[in-house]
Design brief:
The complex is a heterodimer.
Chain A: H1 2-6, H2 13-31, H3 44-53, E1 58-68, H4 89-94, E2 95-105, E3 109-116, E4 119-126, E5 129-134, E6 139-144, H5 147-155, H6 183-193, E7 198-208, E8 211-220, E9 227-235, E10 241-248, E11 254-264, E12 282-286, H7 289-297, E13 314-316, E14 323-327, H8 339-354, E15 357-360, E16 363-369, E17 374-378, E18 382-386, H9 390-399
Parallel strand pairs in A: 6-12
Antiparallel strand pairs in A: 1-2, 1-11, 2-3, 3-4, 4-5, 5-6, 7-8, 8-9, 9-10, 10-11, 13-14, 14-18, 15-16, 16-17, 17-18
Chain B: H1 10-14, H2 21-25, H3 30-41, H4 43-65, H5 86-95, H6 99-118, H7 121-126, H8 131-165, E1 170-171, E2 177-178, H9 180-211, H10 215-233, H11 264-289
Antiparallel strand pairs in B: 1-2
Helix pairs in contact in B: 3-8, 4-5, 4-6, 4-8, 5-8, 6-8, 6-9, 6-10, 8-9, 8-11, 9-10, 9-11
The chains are: A alpha+beta, B mainly alpha.
Chain lengths: 400, 295
Amino acid sequence: MSFFIDHPRARWTLPLAALGVIGATALTVNQTANADSGLPPRTAAQLLADVRSANVSSLSGTVVQTSDLGLPEIPGLSMSGRPGSASSSMTSLISGTHTWRVWLDGPTRQRLALIGSNGESDVIHNGSDVWLWSSADKSAVHHTLSTDQVRAGSAGKGLPSGLAGGLPSGVPSTLPSGAPRTPDEAAAAALALMGQDTTVTTSGAASVAGRSAYELILTPKDKATLVGSVRIAIDSQVHVPLRVQVYSTKRTNPAFEVGFTAVDFAKPDARQFSFTPPAGTTVTQSDHLLAGKGGTSANAPTPSAPTTGQGAPKVVGSGWSTVVVAPFAVPTAPKGSGGSAADSTAQLNGILKALPTTSGAWGSGHVLEGSLFSVVLTNDGRVALGAVPTSQLFSALAAK
Amino acid sequence: MSAAEPVVTEASERSPVAGPAPLRRRLSTRLLRSELRLIAGRRRNQMGLLVLAAVPVLIAVAVRISSPREGRGPDFLSSITSNGLFVPLAALSVELGLFLPLAIAMLAGDSVAGEANLGTLRYLLTVPVGRTRLLVTKYASLVIGAVWGVAVVVVAGAVAGIALFGTGPMPTLSGSEISFGAAVWRVVLVSLYIAAGLAALGAVGLFISTLTEQPLAATVALMIFTILSWIADSVPQISWLHPWLLVDQWMAFGDLLRDPPFWDNVAQGLRVDLGYAVVFGLLAWARFAGKDITS
C-alpha cells in the first residue's frame, strides 16, 4: 500500500475502478440476453408447434410489463409525483412499468397479484370462489361461480376471461383491461394476427428469467404499419412463451414488452390460493361476475366502449394496417353514481382537450399518435384506431 | 486516545478485512466508542432523535382521537387501527422523505467537516491511528447512527401503536393475515432495509464531509443531493436514470409486507445501496487520505 503513499493521486483510481466494475456488471447483466446457450436449432414452424402442444398446468412467477408507447404527456393526469400516490389507470396504461405475480395450479386455481407501490390488487380463483382484493381501499369482492362457470373456466388456460375488467376500480389496479396478462396470452394474440401478412423467422437463443429460450420474430410484410417486429421468446424446455416484445418502426427499444423476470414451473403452495378477508375489510358479495364488471368498469374511462344504437364498428384495410372506425361518444357521468365516475369523465374530457386537434377532408378532431398505434377522435362522434400512422387513419375516415 | 491504544501496522490498516485474524482481534473499538459517545452526547443529535420519535407518536395519537374517515393519507395510515405495528411503518414512510436523511446529513456534516471546523481533526490525527482507520471508524459510526435513527422511529412507533391499538394479526398487502410474531419480524426487516439505504446515504455524506470544513455546508449539500434524487426519481422523462438513483427503491420496503415477500425491488435497492456505499466510501478515502489538514 506504500504505492498510494508515494502516489497520492493514484488513490482516485480506486473509486473510478469501482464505478467501472459496477457499470460493467450492469451491462453484462443486460447483455446475457444475447448469450449463446448452445440450443439445437429449431425452425419457426417447429417452435409454433411446440407452443401449441405446450402443456404447463402449474407455474409461479413474476411478470414485468413495460410500455413506451410514445404518447404525449398529458398534464393533470400524472399524479405519480410522490411514491405511493395513486396513479390513475389511464396514465399507467400509457407508459411505465408494471409488475405482477402469477400463480397457476391447474384450471381451477389461479392467482394474480398486481404489485403497486405499497399497495396490491389480487384476483384469486380457487374452485368455485373468485375473490378480488384491493389493499388500497381494503375491500374485497367475493363471487361464487356456478358449476357451469367452473367448467367453462377449466376450458381456458388462464384466468377466467372478464376478470381483468372486473378488478376493483381502486388503485393500484394498474393493469389495463384487455391487455395480455401472461406472455402466453400475448403470444396467442400475436399468433392470431399472423398469416400471409407476416414473415416469421427465428433468431439465436435468448435468456429470459434465467431460462434459455428460442426467439420467434414476426415481421410485418406490410410497410404501412407502425409495428416493426414482434419478438416472442419461447422456453426451450417447456415451450411456454416467456416474453413478448413489440418493436415500433420509430424507435430501437421495445415499445411494449411483457415477460417473466422469474418463473418456476413447480406446483405453487396451496396457501397462495386460499383467501380470507382480513379483519376490517369491506366485503361485497357479487352474484354476477360480468354484471359486476359492467358496474365497476363503467367508472373506468374507456372511450372505445360503443353505446348501443349508434352503429357497429367498421373495419378498413387488413392485416397489420387494419383500421377500426367506430362510433364514439364522450361518456357522461351516470346519475347517482359515485364521485369516481364523474371524476373519470372529467378526466377524460381533460385528456381530450389536451390532445392536439387537426382537420382534413374527413372532418376535424383530436389526434393521438404513439409509437405503436394512432387514434383519431372526430368531432362528429367517430373514433379511428389502428397500428398505422395518422395519415392512414385520415384516409380511412374519409372513405366513410 | 491514550498510549494504550494498540498500534496496528500500516498494511493491516489499509485493508483491515484482508488482515490475518489474530491481528484483527487487536483492533480496538475505543476509537469507535469515543466517536459514538461524541455523537450521542451532542445536544442537537438528542433533539433530533426526539423529533424522530415524536412523529410516530403524533401519528398514533392523531389516528386514535379522530374518527375513521375516507381519504388517502400516507401509506399504511388507514391500516393503523387494525394493528399497532402499522404506526412505525406509516412513520417510516413519512420520515424517509426528509427527517431520516436530514438526521444522516447532520451526523455526516459533523463527522469530518465538523471536526475540521472545530480544529479537533488535526489532534485526532496526531494519535497513532491511520487516516484510513479514522475514516472507517467515522463511517461505522454513521452506519450505527442510521440504524439508531430508524430504531428510534420504529420503537417509539411500536410502543405508541401497541399501547393505543393493541397487537393482533397483521393484514399483509396481499390480503392474508400473519401472526403478530411474524409481523414483528417483518417490521425488523423493513427497518434494516431502510437503515441500509440511509447507511449508503451516509457514505455520500462522508465524502461530502471530507470536501469542506464547514459542517453546515456538508449537511446542506447532502440534503440537496437527497432532494434532487427524489425529484429526479419523480420525473418520468428520465426513467432511464431511475435505477441508478439511491432513493429509487427506498419506498420498496412495502414489498416486504406482501405474502410471500416480494424481493425483486428490495434486492435491487440493496444493490444500489451497496454500489453507492462502495463508490462514495472509496471517494471519501481517496480524498481524506491525501487531504491537507490545515485547521
